[in-house]
Amino acid sequence: MIFDYLIVGAGFSGSVLAERLASQLGARVLVVERRNHVGGNAYDHFDDAGVLVHRYGPHIFHTNSRQIFDYLSQFTGWRQYEHRVLASVDGQLLPIPINLDTVNRLYGTNFTSFELEKFFASVAEKRNPVRTSEDVVVSTVGRELYEKFFRGYTRKQWGLDPSELDASVTARIPTRTNRDDRYFGDAFQAMPLHGYSRLFERMLSHPLIHVLLNTDFREVRDVLPYRRLIYTGPIDEFFDHRLGRLPYRSLRFEFETLEQERVQPVGTVNFPNDHAYTRVTEFKHLTGQEHARTTIVYEYPQAAGDPYYPVPRKENAELYSRYEKLAADTPGVTFVGRLATYKYYNMDQCVGQALAAFKKLAEGVRRPPAGAGAFEAA
Ligand code: FAD
Ligand code: UDP
Known about the structure:
alpha/beta, Rossmann fold, 3 domains, 5-stranded parallel β-sheet
């Protein structure tokens, strides 16, 4: 039997495409995944203590797209959850993104929102153009707040100074003059009711989808019969790094279970200036699970290891665009996802990109006349 599509990777990008191709086009799909589970980096599971944890770091779902939220709602119910983060700065735990309370508590001031706007204007440094991650922050809140909240965190997380990273990295974090202390401002913010792994199991449960775990594409590419390939792994690896290696930032996760119900006041505490780790997350805040014990995870950034983050800076974008040209000249293969398109995408953006890729693929499909048999990819 020949598969209509071979999909490399069972994360959001690969799983959404598998689900759409099977359920909407009647295509036979084989998904190969080198890990021993589906879900990609969004995978969750119960640890030895019975606490639901995210193996590859905390994943909080948020989107402004009703279409994406509705699409995923076919496979999961939701638990409303708005993430809150405190940063450990100068011996205090202060709200991040920086807001009115952050500044008033840091400086012992009593600014109103209007006064805070004037304060920011008085300390902000003009940058024209705003090009780097340093520019974004110092041109909004000035050098001192930049140094307390952003500089150390960014150097730890990326192994680079903010002045060496694109503006888009720190621009993920807004600045507020009101008291809104939510980490995300999106219209939809929720966690899958029974976790991410259950969502993936339901998404991939279609009878036309087969999943092969513990299988690296590189070992089976020449033996598996398929018509078209969808690849969601690192793009430079697909081409055997022939143009050089694209940098991906990695992390080491350290989990700890404590004999108490709760340990920190919010889901995540950031440590911009102390310790080798960037942040500590307590999963029960995110999942709402009730349990006598609690599990936290420390994130230690590192250069080597699983590829988790593309590194947004000019020279990497240039190298990626050379790989992108190679990809465009490779017929029969579609590259999608955070690793294959080298984009710092959140989960919802991966779902959106995969739905768009599906639409394009569906347009190229010649549907055979009724009863004529197999699906045919153009
Ligand atoms: P992945 O999830 O990386 O899936 C790719 C899969 O392909 C992997 O399972 C990999 O094993 C497999 N693969 C690769 N090469 C091969 C091969 N040769 N053969 C077989 N299989 C292969 N997003 C949010 O929206 N909210 C968050 O709070 C959030 N937090 C995050 C925290 C961390 C620490 C990290 C690293 C990411 C976070 N994200 C978050 C981003 C989110 O993880 C991604 O947007 C999303 O999971 C990417 O999906 P993907 O399918 O493109 O890639
Ligand atoms: N950042 C920071 N201090 C913080 C939080 C974030 O300097 O307290 C910067 C840092 O460069 C980080 C980026 O903003 O990598 C994006 O943060 P986000 O929380 O979105 O990162 P992710 O959850 O994707 O790791």
